[in-house]
Amino acid sequence: MTVPPAPTSSPSWAAPAVVAATVLGVGRVPFAPGTFGALVGLPLSLGTGWLATRFAAGVPTVAIEAAIIAGMAVVGIPICTRAASLLGRKDPGAIVLDELVSMPMALLVVSPEARTPAVLLLAFVILRVFDITKPFPCRQLERLPAGLGIMADDWGAAAWTAAIVAIVRSLHWF
Q: What is the pTM of this model?
């Protein structure tokens, strides 16, 4: 699916898909919008962890939290597709829903009760580095069509982050 050319008029920042994809306008911050999107993802990761513990009843908390995050990721694909179309670009910087969802994804390797400020900061910094540098396969995932490409490269960055955080924690550095 390709994104149509830029609209001739200014984008509709009030369109529901744009509001959602920019995380209520967070993506409109004039500098480092992805960083701000990931920052909003930090309390979201605490919320998904808390919510998962409330529904655990015999099911591993991580499974419930993964299901919640997967749901957000899947819903994010058409939202990002529509927002990119409305904004007239393949992956506008203002779309930060991908960073928002990738933060709790990266923290799935850390139990909700172990998400200390130091662990959150570690994951945040690592995620931003991987999102910016796009190690394999992030750059390739970014080339997927429309909203899938917008979201998937951040899933790759989240996977790299989760691996590093898991290693660092297993070595008892955090």
A: 0.89
